[in-house]
Amino acid sequence: MDVRRPALIRLEGYFYEDKQPCRPPSPAPPWFPFGNPSFLSEYEIATFQKAGSGQWVAVYLRRGDAPQLVSLLDADPRFVYVPCPAT
């Protein structure tokens, strides 16, 4: 495991949101790793809705690992994977 480039990132301090969070927070907190363009290019956002609610959570997945991780996370009945709309 590469601790400097983890397969999954969940931002500490960001909890459930009322709408689908398809972009990194803006303005980005100073510790936010996505301020670095090379870091951002290695990750994609995956959003999940808490089953039976209007609450959303976002995780950032390493691009190469994203399909497998989405499948594993989506298998949890408490969350439903919903891709962000294409921009």
What can be said about this structure in brief?
This protein has 87 residues and is of the alpha+beta class. It is 15% helix and 23% strand. It has a 4-stranded antiparallel β-sheet with strand order 1-3-2-4, covered by helices on one side.
Largest sheet: 4 strands, antiparallel
What is the overall silhouette?
globular
Q: What is the count of helical runs? A: 2
Strand order of the largest sheet: 1-3-2-4
Compute the average pLDDT: 81
E-strand count? 4
The ordered H/E elements are EHEEHE
Terminal Cα span: 32 Å
Structural class: alpha+beta
Written overview of the protein:
The model has no long low-confidence stretch (mean pLDDT 81). The chain has 87 residues and is α+β, with helices and mostly antiparallel strands. A four-stranded antiparallel β-sheet has the order 1-3-2-4, covered by helices on one side. The protein starts with 7 loop residues before the first strand and ends in a 6-residue tail after the last strand. The protein is globular. Helix content is 15%, strand content 23%.
Notable characteristics:
single chain, globular, 2 helices, four-stranded antiparallel β-sheet, 87 residues, alpha+beta
